[in-house]
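Q: A reviewer asked whether we had any structural model of the full assembly, not just the individual parts. We don't, so I'm hoping you can provide one. Inputs are below.
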Amino acid sequence: MSGSKPLKMANADEEKLCLDSEPPKNFEHGPETKPPKTKPKREAKVKIALVSCGTEYGGVQHAFEQAADKVNAEFIYPEIDVAVLDTIGKDFGIEAASGDLRLMMARAQAVVRGETIADGVFITTCFRCAEAAIVRNEVRRYIHKYSNVPVISYSFTEQTDAATLYTRFEALTTIAKRRHLLAREVQHGITAGIDSGSTTTKAVIMKDNRIIGYGWVPSNEVIESAEKALTLALEMSGIDRSEIQALGTTGYGRYLVGQHYNADLVQEEITTNSKGAVYLAKIQKGPATVIDIGGMDNKAISVEDGIPGMFTMGGICAGASGRFFETVAKRLNVDITELGDLAMKGHQKNVPMNSYCIVFGTQSLVNSLAGGALPKDVAAAACRSVVEQIYQQQLQEVDVKEPVILVGGSSLIKGVPRELSDLLNVKVIVPENSHLIGAVGAALLVSGFVEE
Amino acid sequence: MVKVFIYPTNSFILADLVTRSGHEPLVIMNQVREKVTSLSVDSPPLNITSEDTNLGLKYAAIEVPAGVRGRMALMGPMIEEAEAGIIVEDAPADFGCSGCNRTNELFKYLARTHVDRSLILEIRYPSNEEQMHDFVYTILDFLKTLPTETKSEKGSGKK
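A: Here is a predicted structure for the entire assembly that you could use as a starting point for your response.
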């Protein structure tokens, strides 16, 4: 920890805005929430309908329950008439042989018809099961099409743990229960946002709906990196830290950083990044698809009026993330900031590359260079390979609606938006400061806490 | 009395017919009961943990989904114990259902290879009342033909 004095944004005794707590007492402009006069009551649990092929048999039920409990949610199991299982296949349209997959369809139908009241739906099936993958995808589409209930889907292995699911559940419960938080489109006052990411830490200072300072540093020790980024942002903005009226944190290190700065808002990155992306792209109304290629994982988020609908998060391996670009740049002996320009001069078709796994991707890279491939073609192929992984692994689970907004540090590598645009055959928008979306989203959302 | 596996593995009707005929039905409910009445319940409601999915590797490879291996951790030992069996095909969900068809396929395959095929009755679920009577009588007749001593009882007699 640096020797600098931590920010003091709120009364130390006040609760932060986490999903399982009441808003802090200085939350005066949060749309309908007023500071409680009596001891705050614990909010009602968010009801998530668990629509699965039998998580209780997969050795993961405990992890699911743990993750749900951490975000103050509980699973509910939509009730159905067992006889429906014999007819639902034809009724829904997929004559699945597995009883539990037919149960998934029946439960989804119960949610859509309002026979079960759920705040959100979590659809999950075994990883590597083709029949389940077909049903999972179609059930997700069905719920999304015929109801307003937010839905996420996930394929689990027995290794799935609560930490893996936590951010997803946090986003699901935020969308389900805190839509008012996401409705904010204009930033007020002087606010700060810190995005403590896996590879880089970003901080922004915003004033009256403008970014007036930012800092972007590699993530090392979490608090130290946050402090460096914030100091840079403050220096650039010419603002003293005592002038900051509210501070929000996001990213992997959000809790630690939030605790250090006594942040007013500690929010997962699905919602902050969605808000940051549509805000920076100036597309706060209507549909959009946000693709965030991060240092360690990727997010694909289908957004409507700035509010996430469906989203996927992850990536099988670092081969499909910003890490791979670092590896490629190092091997090509260019700075990461030059990789994009190099890629723009090359043609991906000249080099076969598959970065499904970072090890295999690196092998392709080395073999191509050994075979006489030009560095510019290798750089272009690396960009293509990463966007192909995103297309194969994530965009299959999210309906791509135009405009497509590409954000995250990797969006600054020029070859990436070009290859994505080519692959999806759509125009890809990379907004200014696209690498700062998380911090901007946090600074925007937290401005709801600023006293006018 | 012999140990008889049934398919669907949770069919109360089949289990009842086996019991009435003086044999021991091997049913998934017993396996679940063992799990949920054990000292530590780590993963309610069925208490199947990642340890069980590893136990399932005895019956299915690592690339087989976790849900199949978790189910096989319960159902596999039933096959190992079984001396005879009844497989009912095309049964409706309320007759019994293990939920996962991949598990069903594996269960039936392992049962057919482990148990003497002449001691397995394979029968289609009835679609009308007349067939229903035949269905029940066929099962009861089959159960009457089964040995009255288990393998272990025979073994101990010889000794």
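A: Points you may want to mention in the reply: The domain at 186-271+438-449 of chain A is CATH 3.30.420.40 (Nucleotidyltransferase; domain 5). Residues 1-37 of chain A have pLDDT under 50 and may be disordered.
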